[in-house]
Design a protein that fits this description.
The complex is a heterodimer. By secondary structure, chain A is an all-alpha fold. Chain A folds into two domains: 5-92, Rna Polymerase Sigma Factor, Chain: A, CATH 1.10.1740.10; 101-176, Winged helix-like DNA-binding domain superfamily/Winged helix DNA-binding domain (Arc Repressor Mutant, subunit A, Orthogonal Bundle). Helix content of chain A is 77%, strand content 0%. Chain A has eight helices and no strands. The radius of gyration of chain A is 30 Å and the shape is rod-shaped. By secondary structure, chain B is mostly helical. Chain B has one domain (21-210). In chain B, 70% of the residues lie in helices and 0% in strands. Chain B is built from nine helices and no strands. Classes of the chains: A mainly alpha, B mainly alpha. At the A-B interface, helix 2, helix 3 and helix 4 of A face helix 1 and helix 2 of B.
C-alpha cells in the first residue's frame, strides 16, 4: 500500500528533529514511490531506474535542510526526483541535438510525401482497372464501401472483394520486390 | 550498492536540522566571503581616510542604503531558488525599489547641478575602476555562497547562479563603500550597478556548471 502525504511528511519532520529510525522508515517508503515515478517517465532498464532511485534517496538525505516544514512533502520530493531525471538525461546525452535537423526533417517529409504519391499511382496502374478504382475510392479518397458502390453502380460485396483482392496483389508485389 | 544497504548507511547519520537552516547557511557563506572581501579592501585598496567623517554625511548612507537593500532583495531570491520546489518567485519587485529611489535622487541632483558639471558628476574620479573592483570583490562572496549551496538543492541553476551573483555583487559593493569616495547618486546608479550586474552575469554563466548536484 502506498504511503500518503501526511505519513511521509510526519516521518520527514521527525527525521529533521533527529529521529534516525523515522528517517530510515521514510527512505524505505520512498523506494516504491520513486521506482514507480521513474518507470513511468524514464525509458531506461531496471539498473538505470534503480540508479536514479538511489541517487534521489541520497539527495533526499543530503539536501534535507531544504525541506520547508510548512510545505507539501511530495511536492519537494518530486521536484528533486524530476531534477535528478533531467540531470541524468543530460549526462547520458540521449537528447543530443543535431544542427539543422529540423530543416532536414521538413525537406525529407516533402520529398517522401510526393514520391509516395508517385509510387501509389505506379502500383495502382499495375492492377486491373476495377480493383484500382475501388482502392482509390475507399482507401485514398476515403469513401465508405456503400458510397463507393453507389458511385460505381456495383454491389457492396463486389466492392469489398475488389479492394481485398487488389490489396492482396499489391502486398505480394511489394514483398516480392517485383516492380 | 543494494538499495537497502544504502538506506541503512544513510540513516546512520541523521543530525537534527533547525528551522530556517537554508537562510543560516546562505548567511554563513555570505559573511565568510565578505570577510575576505573586506580584508582585500583594507589591504589592497585602503580604507578612505575620511571614513569616520563620511559616515555622518548623506552620500555614504545613500550608497549603503542602495547596496544593502539590493543585497537583501537578492538574498531573498537566492534563498527561494535554493529549494527544489521554488515555484513562482515572490518579492521579485522588491529589487525595483532601491533602483527607483536612487534614480529619483539622481534626477533631483541633476536638476540642482549646472549641466556643464553633469559629465564630471557622472564619471566621478573612479568610473573606470569602480565596476571592476566591485566585480573582483564579489568573487570571494560568490565562492562563499557556492559553499552554502553544497547542501542546498537548486533546480533552476541559471536563475540560482544569477541570484547568488547578484547578492555577491551587491554585498561586495557594500564592502567597497569603505574605500570609495564618490558622492553622486548617478555615479552609484551607473557604475556600482554595472559592477553588481557583471557579478550577476558571471553567476548566471557559471550557475549551470557549478551548482549541479
Amino acid at each position: 500500500m502506498r504511503a500518503d502525504e501526511d505519513e511521509l511528511r510526519g516521518l520527514m519532520i521527525s527525521g529533521l528533529d533527529g529521529n534516525a529510525g523515522d528517517h530510515a522508515a521514510l527512505l524505505r517508503l520512498l523506494v516504491p514511490i520513486l521506482r514507480g515515478y521513474y518507470r513511468r517517465r524514464a525509458s531506461g532498464g531496471d539498473d538505470e531506474i534503480e540508479d536514479l532511485v538511489q541517487e534521489t534517496l541520497i539527495a533526499v538525505h543530503t539536501r534535507r535542510v531544504t525541506y520547508d516544514r510548512d510545505r507539501a512533502f511530495t511536492g519537494w520530493l518530486f521536484a528533486i526526483a524530476r531534477y535528478k531525471m533531467i540531470d541524468n538525461f543530460r549526462r547520458v546525452r540521449r537528447l543530443q541535438p543535431i544542427d539543422g535537423l529540423e530543416d532536414e526533417l521538413v525537406a525529407d517529409g516533402f520529398e517522401d510525401s510526393s514520391s509516395a504519391r508517385i509510387d501509389v499511382d505506379d502500383l495502382l496502374g499495375t492492377l486491373p482497372d476495377k480493383q484500382a478504382r475501388m482502392i482509390r475510392a475507399t482507401r485514398i479518397e476515403g469513401l465508405s464501401i456503400a458510397e463507393a458502390a453507389a458511385a460505381d453502380g456495383l454491389g457492396e460485396s463486389d466492392v469489398k472483394i475488389s479492394v481485398h483482392r487488389g490489396l492482396k496483389a499489391l502486398m505480394t508485389r511489394i514483398q516480392g520486390g517485383g516492380r | 550498492m543494494n538499495t537497502d544497504d544504502l538506506i541503512a548507511q544513510l540513516s546512520s547519520d541523521v543530525p537534527r536540522v533547525r528551522r530556517h537552516m537554508v537562510g543560516w547557511r546562505i548567511a554563513a557563506g555570505l559573511l565568510a566571503g565578505a570577510l575576505v572581501s573586506g580584508a582585500l579592501v583594507v589591504m589592497a585598496m585602503g580604507v578612505r581616510p575620511d571614513l569616520g567623517k563620511a559616515m555622518h554625511g548623506f552620500p555614504f548612507w545613500m550608497k549603503w542604503g542602495y547596496t544593502i537593500s539590493l543585497a537583501i532583495a537578492a538574498l531573498i531570491m537566492t534563498a527561494q531558488l535554493a529549494r527544489p520546489d521554488s515555484g513562482r518567485l515572490r518579492w521579485l519587485w522588491l529589487m525595483a525599489i532601491p533602483v527607483l529611489l536612487l534614480a529619483g535622487l539622481g534626477v533631483f541632483e541633476l536638476v540642482r547641478t549646472p549641466p556643464a558639471q553633469w559629465l564630471a558628476m557622472w564619471l566621478g574620479q573612479s568610473w573606470m575602476s569602480c565596476p571592476w573592483r566591485v566585480l573582483a570583490l564579489a568573487m570571494p562572496i560568490f565562492i562563499g555562497l557556492l559553499w552554502s549551496f553544497r547542501r542546498l538543492a537548486p533546480t533552476r541553476l541559471r536563475a540560482a547562479g544569477a541570484a547568488a551573483g547578484l547578492a555577491a555583487g551587491a554585498f561586495a559593493a557594500t564592502v567597497y563603500c569603505i574605500h570609495c569616495p564618490e558622492v553622486s547618486a548617478i555615479f552609484v546608479l551607473t557604475w556600482y550597478s554595472l559592477g553588481i550586474l557583471l557579478a550577476a552575469l558571471v553567476g548566471a554563466l557559471l550557475g549551470p556548471r557549478l551548482l549541479r548536484w
